[in-house]
Each structure stands twice: as C-alpha cells, then as structure tokens.
Amino acid sequence: MTESANSERELRKRQAFIDREQDILSVSESLMADKGVRKVSIDTIAARTGIGKGTIYKHFDSKRDLLIAIAERHYAALFELLGRSTDPTQALSDWIDARLGGARKSILIRELTETLAGDSGALSTLRESQVRMRKRLAQVLSGLSTTRGEAMERAMWLESLVQGALVEMESPLRSRSFDVDEWIESITRIASVLLSQPKRPEKNQRLTYL
After folding, report:
1. Distance (Å, rounded) from C-alpha 163 to C-alpha 151?
2. What is the C-alpha separation between 109 and 103, in angstroms, rounded?
3. Whole-angstrom distance, CA of residue 40 vs CA of residue 34
4. Residue 41 half-sphere exposure, CB side, CA atoms within 13 Å?
5. Is 151 exposed, middle or buried (CB count within 10 Å of its CB: 0-12, 13-18, 19+)?
6. Which of 38, 44, 91, 181 is the most buried (most CB within 10 A)?
7. Is 145's pLDDT higher than 50?
8. From CA 170, how far away is CA 83, in angstroms rounded?
9. Backbone phi and psi for residue 158, each to the nearest 5 degrees, phi listed first
10. Neighbours of 15 (CB within 10 A)
11. Which domains does the chain have, with CATH numbers?
12. Any residues with CB less than 8 A from the CB of 99 and at least 6 apart, and which?
C-alpha cells in the first residue's frame, strides 16, 4: 500500500473516531437531559448508541471524563456561535436563543456542573471553558477586541440574567401563561440596551486646577 493510501486510510479512521465520539456525546446529552445525570450509566449509553461499552471507554476513561466533554462541547458551541455574525446585536440574539431556546441543554450543563462540584480538577477545566466563552461574549458587548473593564461585567450580568430565566422556566411555580418566546424576546431587548451603553471616558488621574 502506498504512503498516500496509508495516509488517506488514517484520515478516514480518525474521522470515524471523531464522528463516533460526537455520537456518544449527543446520545449521552439527550439521555441525561431526559433522565438526569446520575441516572444515566455507561451501560445505558452503550445500549442506546449500539456502541460497545469497551469502545466508549476508548473515547472516555470514565463517566467523569464524559461529563466534562459534554460541558466543554457546550461552551465551545456557544463560543463559536458568538463569532458567526459580524453584527453584535444578531450575535447576542443568537446566543440568547441558544441558551433559552435550548433550555434543556443549558439546564443539563448546570446539573452536570453540580454533579462535579466536589471535583476541583473537573471544575477547573469547566471554568476555563466558561471563561473563554464569556470573554467572547464580552467582545461582542464591547464591539472591540479587548475584554477588559465594563464589557466583562456586562457579560457576567447577562449570563446571570439568562440563568435566572432558566430557573424560572423549570420552576413548578411558574404561571400557566408562561411563554418562553416572550422571555427570549424580553431578554434580547435587555441585551440590546446593554450593547448600546456608551463607554465611560477614562478618568484623568491628575487633578486639574483652574
């Protein structure tokens, strides 16, 4: 077999490995969103995917690693989404729609993070992914390449607002007239206000005397 053929074969194998890994993550995510993180085992995932348990362990050493990969993929998708549009308003609208329109996934990530709460190594990894996504959000809010100062504060505030909306969406006390689409539109309007806030001029540290 020629070197070129070997190279092509290795590329196909690598792509098949990546595709299989994404299938495992997607099925795991769906199962956990329906049943809860703790109720889904590797055996359950193997049965649903039709992929042998041993093969799953070739991709992920443990359920812990699988949970981390699900969360990292979630934050990476949000990061990528924020960079698709050159229009900051559209980018924010897409981000909010993904967070609230895909509420089950966002709620799952919160549950998953709580499950890993006692694992400092896992939390450190998730925090890095979250911060990377948050910096991109701050860039969208500022419209500049910098992520320092008020833009980051507004990014954190907006995230908190979305998290509060998610809590309300899953609350058993929510009104029967609760409309998810109206919430998304409302938060998008608030985000537009955040985006339009003028930057404060830098303070001159020296006193000026007349």
Report:
1. 18
2. 10
3. 10
4. 4
5. buried
6. 91
7. no
8. 29
9. -65, -40
10. 10
11. 1-60 (1.10.10), 63-198 (1.10.357)
12. 78, 106, 162, 166
- 3-35 vs 103-115: helix crossing angle, rounded to 10: 90
The CB density around residue 122, as the number of other CB atoms within 10 Å, is 19
**Residue whose entry in the numeric block shows the structure tokens 């795991």:** 28
* Cα torsion 135, 141, 146, 152: sign: negative
Q: State how far the Cα of 26 lies from the Cα of 22, in Å rounded to an integer.
A: 6
Split at pLDDT 50, 70, 90, the class of 203 is low
Q: Give Cβ neighbours of residue 78 (< 8 Å, ≥ 6 apart).
A: 95, 98, 99, 133
The label of the residue with tokens 């998008």 reads: 188
pLDDT in tens, 68-98: 999 999 999 999 999 998 888 889 889 998 9
Asked if residues 133 and 162 have their Cβ atoms less than 8 Å apart, the reply is no
Helix/strand/coil for 146: coil
Q: 27-58, pLDDT tens digit by residue?
A: 999 999 999 999 999 999 999 999 999 999 99
Residue the block writes with tokens 């085992």: 41
Reported as type and span, the H/E element at residue 78 is helix 63-82
